[in-house]
Amino acid sequence: MLTELLGFPPQVLFGQLLLGLINGAFYAVLSLGLAVIFGLLNIVNFAHGALYMLGAFAALGITQYLGLGYWGALIVAPIAVGAFGIVIERLLLRRLAGVDHLYGLLLTFGLALVIEGTFVKFFGSSGLPYPTPKALEGGVNLGFMFLPWYRAWVVVASLLVCGATWFLFERTKIGAYLRAGTENPKLLQAFGVNVPLLTTLAYGYGVALAAFAGVLAAPITQVNPLMGSNLIIVVFAVVVIGGMGSIMGAVVTGLAMGVIEGLTKVFWPEASATVIFVVMAIVLVLRPAGLFGKTA
Q1: Alpha carbon distance 245, 230 (integer Å)
Q2: Helical axes 173-183 vs 149-171, angle rounded to 10°
Q3: pLDDT tens-digit profile of 164-199?
Q4: Contact 33, 48 (CB under 8 A)
């Protein structure tokens, strides 16, 4: 009955739903990093895709030259790229404090081009393979599709990181300080809180989230210098739909857009590449601040 109603086997629908959830997990982690940076620093970080790519290359280098393996790279690579992000914030972005957001966007866009161009120069654009960790090889037959264990791990790891980030920024004293620092930094400094240090660490954490997503993606997609530029536009659309700076909006919308994209591939494959942007246009018309954004 379901097959006749849909016009295709239900296994196709369930399979695309699951694949959409996996893609949505990447969207959620990447858009979460963007939301943290914009919400706390008011910076539109166009270098996010390049930093995502750096996470994948860092994992590749750590595995090949330091011998730490995938699990070591999953910890060390985000820390290393996050430290690089801290350097960027201290040397470049801090100089743009108080000026129009456009300058930060242009600076990070130029930085992304420099990073990507440098890696294309040394590594080319064909891509490098990254092995799946042995503990997560194989998979399970769900009846409607074969689910690799690694892709299941991606969803679980993404949800854990998103949940931990939400708790950190919404339920802890540090998160309260960060939110207060965006609204009235001078008052917070009067109470002895080092606001510049907090904002620097917040940017580093947002960058580390991008690198974490890059490590997760490395065994699924080949590691190449352009892997971030192919994804960042979609992630920006997800952030706009959820609401710029909204942590909950980034997570929920990222997962939802992945599922919607997967369903579109079933019912209208030609529109699957543009459905997220159509949803973004509709949301901006009906609710310019985004689904979870705060209206002025």
Answers
A1: 22
A2: 70
A3: 999 988 888 888 887 777 777 777 788 788 888 888
A4: yes
